[in-house]
Batch of 4 targets.
Target 1
Amino acid sequence: MSLKTQMNIDLTSVFFNSDEFAETCSYTDFATKNKATGLKCIVQNKAEVGTEYGRADYSTVVVRFEDIALPQRNDKIETDTALYTVLNRVSLEFGAWTLQVESEEKSKP
């Protein structure tokens, strides 16, 4: 088995495994309003930052390339606890996008 093949297997079986790092999310394309549900994403690097408009929470979210071919600014990612707005594509490595996002906590019913 090649290294590339093993890395693709690990991407799904380890990193995007809900028992390990991933959580279930939905992804909404800002331009078309198309929504993909039941995807796996990894939220990381939460940091609250002061801005001239108040405090904002900036994070990165990792999504699989096979789920989201070309993420765009203002697309939305939703988990059980937060709604994220895509600000920038940071990188595409090993079949996964790393996205810089701004998060907004969901209000509790």
Target 2
Amino acid sequence: MILDECRLIVCGKPYTVSNISDGETAQLTFSITGDSNFQIRATLEDGTVLSTSFGYVTGGAGRYHNRATITVRSNVIEGTQ
């Protein structure tokens, strides 16, 4: 599976990575400007679109640590924080 594009939206700002091969890892650095959740939209090479939202970030950081791991599989996106 090749991930054509993965778009993360957090605090209203989009961040994108593209052309990720099966088993490959990509990293994004995002800015926290207030309270928000993570919105993810992934497009696979066959045109399948997967989307979800999860988690919570806060401008004050605190216990939420403002980090997330996103795993895209052939039929689902999993997000952990």
Target 3
Amino acid sequence: MINYSALELLHRHDDGTAARMTEHNLEEHDPEREMLRGIRRGARLFRCDVCADEVILQPGPETTEEGSA
């Protein structure tokens, strides 16, 4: 499990500057819920504080094949 509070997520802009991304509530973000298709449980939404670009971090797909984790 990732300790998100111990990390700082930055977003690089075209001019080379980097801005902090802060976490936002994924469910409140998209009232139409169309974007939630394919987004797994436990996903977290981060938004750039300067330009509002977004990143969603989510758990990898679960596999059922022997030897996969």
Target 4
Amino acid sequence: MTRFHLSPTEPSLAAEGFGLLRDAYLRARVANPLLPALDADQEARLQRRVERAFAYGGIAAWRGGSLRGFMIAGPSFEFRGLVASLVPEFGHAVAAGEEADLVGLLYAASAEQLVREGVHLHLIGHFAADLGTTSALFELGFGAVVREQLRDLSDVALGDEPRVAHRAQLERVEHVRHLDSWRDVAPLAAAHAAFYRESPVFVRKDAALDEALVELDAHRVDGDQLFVYREGDEMLAYLIVGRCAGGSEGRLLEGTSTAQVRSAFTVPVARRRGIGAALLQQATAWVRAQGFERLFVEHETANLCGGAFWRRHFAPYLLFSLRYVDRTL
């Protein structure tokens, strides 16, 4: 193994660190060209995020006086009932070809500090196309928990059914515009929240009807668009789409012309009938008409049914992986 010298990061290293992240971003964009082009605006946004990370501090790796990699874990927070810390997607990078040597070294030093501070749940965002980093993290005991994906705005493949069946499904999709109709979705949204508690996702969300109404109203106020699928008087599915703000998710898409699937759910008895594809097609047509350039979705990897649907229609660009360190150590 090539020898590296590890040291604490300093804010003055942010420019060199950004150079490593910039190269990693460009490699990821070769694998998924739907990532926003690294124009002056996008470069400035990413550079600001790297600068904020370096202000917090982490671990740098050197060889021959050259910065070859860095890893910076953010402040601790509660995640799934445990104290956690995230190394964000812009909080680490290594020189191309050195992932096998460096990722483990950087994480070992970062993990030692985190555990000393009582942080035993470690998360990291990493480019899906960076197989060297993904492999190194797997060997260290990480497993993927969240996937971020993109698709272009071409029409959605609707399956092998006859075209007349596709047309009938598309005609059952309603673009909801009235307040009362938004509220009609609340029972389905509450069922969606309850779904997350089931195996193998095991994510606790508030499934109360009042909470569903509050969340739906927040979507409406934000300008998000609601599409529902009905058969007769029965609502079987919905999809909410809007602008991607790049806040807690889709951070690499902040400030770009990107729309986001904000929420979607189909009742179990209506799955695998092409309903989700019909909703996605109508939502994609709206996104295209608004002048967006791409559509983004984020989902838990353990969501077996939903995850399979999103993988069929989107291409991954980012993974979030998790490792738990025994608290009795």
